[in-house]
Amino acid sequence: MTPSLGWLSALIAGFFSVHVLQKLCFPYFWRDLMFLLRVMRYGANLELFKLRSRVHTVLDRFIQQAQRVPDKPFVIYEGSVHTYRDIERRSNRLAHVFLEDVKLRKGECIALLMSNEPDFLCVWFGLAKVGCSVAFLNINIKSKSLLHCVNCCGATTLIVGADLVDSMNGILSSLQEENIQVWAMKSHTEHTHIHTLLDKVEAASEQPVPASLRATTSLKAPTLYIFTSGTTGLPKAAVITHLQSLKAAAGFWAFGATEDDVMYIPLPLYHSAASLIGIGGTIELGATCILKKKFSASQFWNDCRKHDVTIFQYIGELCRYLCNQPPTEEDMIHKVRMGVGNGLRPDVWREFQSRFGNVKMCEVYGSTEGNLCFMNHIGKIGTVGRSNFFYRLLFKYDLIKYDMVKDEPVKDQHGFCRTVKKGETGLLLSKVSALSPFFGYAGSKQLTERKLMRNVFAKGDAYFNTGDLMAEDQEGFISFRDRVGDTFRWKGENVATTEVTETLGLVEFIQEVNVYGVEIKGHEGRAGMAAMIIRPGFSFDGSKLFEHVMRDLPAYARPLFIRLQEEMEMTSTFKQQKFQLVQSGFNPSSISDLLFVLDHQQQSYIPLTDCIYHSILAGERKL
């Protein structure tokens, strides 16, 4: 063999050896690198905004798409097609009404209480066009919580959907006292203190309002407030800046979606998943979305087939509902290729793909207000995201040891936190920095400060506390384990135990109450359970408690189970002990305390018998 051929053979053998080594030791190297380069390219564009005098926002992108593809369907809702031009013109009309009739001014915050419908987008964009920030209100909240949400974000005006006007009855007088005007998406109303919008929209101009009204020079300027349940009781208004909106709008694109995709959005628009990722992502691509007023398991696949849906948004519970539908011969007849969401359990994930085909499920981890996001671009079952050498160069996060019994981080002799080893479960913290800022909540600075942990590993550092227990394996895949503190998740919603505790505390026969979540086999998240002590001289009244929770709590926050106790267990720092209660669950055969279960048929909390307990485990009882 000649020297040149020998050199060539050695080079080929070397390349082959490196390739084999990479496949064996770093199997995801190229996929990680390509994904991160894609994300970094988008991030670089955001950095360029800082060098310009004007920020290009998600709204600007929508207006750009309305000019580029005016006749393309943007939103399809209940059989009606709304093009980019349609939504652009109607939002222009609303912008004129907001300026001329409602008398809104740039910089004001406006609260929006609307169900999923095209006019939600038109109102949102119309408000943004006149330079107002918008607070999305959860349509399930009532009375005290609703009033709190309007107040805490400093809203001067409340805009209400036609189907939600009656929910104003309990708070109209309070809103009047605080000079907050209420406008409804109706042509006429019998409420003397509610103004109407639709009758004014038809007469308004569809020409754009001055672009200077919506212009902003800072990526960090607030554009939305999205409410999230936390550990402080009442909902908190997370500040959503233009920077966060733009990052979220890149979600579909980062997973490989294109303008030819059709998105299915069955989640509520008042949540960040549907509004920021769903609508924002559709706009970024110039794609089409199918908007549902409310998720329907029985209609889901027929909708997907009818509209040639290729990507859908989900929460884990949604996928479980789909798997629980009766099997049909058409289960695999569809064009859906990808799902984007969070909270998908491994067993449901496997069943979903086995039954409905090889749909790539892209889990996204990140809270509305958080400064960290994981994206499972590999699609590995049971993981919420992936970290690697490249990711850690850009984002600083740690998993720290956490004592579940004491409900607090484990610290060393110097008072600093300790990280867990690979594969161990720890509390996820994300470092607050210029690259990963935390914008906090509207209102009291104390709310923002409570989500931060300081002096974690060194004096002066600050970390965002996610409140989530996670684990990272040897390959860098990250899995969700549990939530800590005073929040649990049920029916796709975060339940703040202190808010439920305060509400239950108003019942005359309850002296003390401890609210927590318990696992139910086959159900995503945790169902609400309340351990309580009955006030001396009183007795437990299941009917009265049922009436109280039905009136004052949204469906997802109502405790399903009640446990009567003689005394409450406390931690050494005088916090209510939840760990043992959570662990013991709701099995009447292993708990000596009296147990009760919510029963809609009898409109009461009735004794939880072994028979009822087993019917719940068998999935025979509707929860």
UniProtKB/TrEMBL annotation:
Sequence similarity: Belongs to the ATP-dependent AMP-binding enzyme family.
Domain AMP-binding enzyme C-terminal: 502-575
Enzyme Commission number(s): 6.2.1.3
GO biological process, one term: long-chain fatty acid import into cell
Enzyme class: ligase
Membrane topology label: Multi-pass membrane protein
GO MF term list: long-chain fatty acid transmembrane transporter activity; long-chain fatty acid-CoA ligase activity; nucleotide binding
UniProt superkingdom: Eukaryota
Source organism: Gymnodraco acuticeps
Localization of this protein: Cell membrane
Catalytic activity line of the entry: tetracosanoate + ATP + CoA = tetracosanoyl-CoA + AMP + diphosphate; a long-chain fatty acid + ATP + CoA = a long-chain fatty acyl-CoA + AMP + diphosphate; a very long-chain fatty acid + ATP + CoA = a very long-chain fatty acyl-CoA + AMP + diphosphate
InterPro entries referenced in this protein's UniProt entry, alphabetically: AMP-bd_C (IPR025110), AMP-bd_C_sf (IPR045851), AMP-binding_CS (IPR020845), AMP-dep_synth/lig_dom (IPR000873), ANL_N_sf (IPR042099)
Annotated TM spans: 6-30
Main localization, broad class: membrane
Domain AMP-dependent synthetase/ligase: 64-387
A single Gene Ontology CC term: plasma membrane
The protein's name: long-chain-fatty-acid--CoA ligase
Keywords, in A-Z order: Cell membrane, Fatty acid metabolism, Ligase, Lipid metabolism, Lipid transport, Membrane, Nucleotide-binding, Transmembrane, Transmembrane helix, Transport
Originating gene: slc27a6
